[in-house]
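Aim 2 progress update. The chain analyzed this quarter is reproduced below.
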Amino acid sequence: MTDTQTLNPSDLTDAGPAGLTVEDLTIRYGGNVAVSGFSLAGPLGWVTGLIGPNGAGKTTTFNACSGLLRPSAGRVSLFGADVTNLAPPARARLGLGRTFQRMELFDSLTVAQNVRLGREAALAGCNPLRQLISTAADRRAIAAAVAEAIELCGIGDMAGLRAGSLSTGQRRLVELARALAGDFRFLLLDEPSSGLDKAETAVFGSILRRVVEERGSGILLVEHDMDLVMRVCDYIYVLDFGQPIFDGTPVEVRRSPVVRAAYLGSEAADV
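Predicted structure tokens:
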């Protein structure tokens, strides 16, 4: 049973410009269909949620959006341009960033050095020599981007600490700051609150709202913490066994009997 309405940004007057758009996405592994006929619109200036039980196809969808997987059918667009056949580096150069469930920080480097890598990689693009031979303008741009990202994530007091000495919550903020320093216009965040306690999750959610409101960025968020999803998302899509079963505002998702039956449970009304 499905109850989908599939948002198109042009249908809503308060939606931002086109960010990430997925149309009729289907992904097969041999005879197994992991995702079937899924469409999604993630406007700039919004946090768009993607939720569902384990095995629903959320990470598979993320991998197709970032270019790690080639869809069996369907189309992925970024800022109005078809990127279905582009590799991950090409999508990154267009402004698509991503974090993963498993954090990948350089523990021997400081927080500031880890964040700096995000901007250096973005500036280097397909020419890695730019990371070794940078211009004065590049160095100024890097310093400014690092300072802004560190300030936005509230980690200035730990900028000189080694990443390996940080707590899980602090490391998550460093990972986000590194992505923000890369100046990506759209971010894919895969379970970013994993390992965070309630207070850390609240801080993380507030930062995500600042990112979209102050920068006009777009975010697609895969997350199991329903309190975080309901607080920060503007619009939510729900997958179950690779099938889209509902999409709507947080209030609509919370009230949907289809979503409660498949994922949220009867306690959803109190979320």
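The chain has two domains: 1-95+185-271, 100-183. The longest strand covers residues 32-42. These observations will guide the mutagenesis experiments scheduled for the next reporting period.
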